[in-house]
Amino acid sequence: MYKLFVKRILDFIAALFLILLISPLFLLIIIFLVVTNKGRPFFVQERPGKNEKIFKIIKFKTMKDLRDQQGDLLPDKDRLTFVGSFVRKASLDEIPQLVNVLKGEMSFIGPRPLLIRYLPHYKENERKRHSIRPGITGLAQISGRNLLDWDNRLRLDVKYVDNLSFLLDLKIIFRTIKNVITSKDIVVDPNSVMIDLDDERMLKD
């Protein structure tokens, strides 16, 4: 009952409440990022959601679009702005995903939506992570976040799907709040501690 109906109802109510509650902060961050990013406060990217259906995830834009002489984007560490670094450290870049939750594309708790190009590289059991809505935070995020290797990160995603419950969601919410307050396991530049899933799996093959 919780997985099929109650979870979605709670997601909608909580997302609507939080959007109304933090709207002043939301607008303030938008103003700062408009100035920093030359009028572009949002980062929008297609990601696979439930049943691998593609949707557009919304985040605050924390990096400039700086490119080298060949037209390729510079490394993340060279494009991250001062304001963007603060927004990431405080996990404020995730706030716009409340809109994704409101629309039913995401949940508060679930496997994080990863890149589309990763889809061919999942092991068969790992595809179970796409049987539910992706989340803003999840079991992997409270267990090490980007400090985990891919095998363990995806294993925790599947573990969450297999054990989804109201009590588990409550545990993840409280642990997420604690981690954000203490800045535990927050990595401003994820590429500095891990490589992309497709690169890792191709290296192993």
Compact summary:
This protein has 205 residues and is mainly α. 44% of the residues lie in helices and 10% in strands.
Could you describe the 3D structure shown?
The chain is mainly alpha-helical. It is 44% helix and 10% strand. The chain has eight helices and four strands. The strands form two sheets. A two-stranded antiparallel ribbon has the order 1-2. Strands 3-4 form a two-stranded parallel sheet. Strand 1 (42-48) and strand 2 form a beta hairpin. The chain is globular, with a radius of gyration of 17 Å. The N and C termini lie far apart (41 Å).
What is the strand and helix layout of this fold?
Blueprint: H1 2-21, H2 23-36, E1 42-48, E2 54-60, H3 76-79, H4 82-89, H5 97-102, E3 107-109, E4 135-137, H6 150-163, H7 166-182, H8 197-204
Parallel strand pairs: 3-4
Antiparallel strand pairs: 1-2
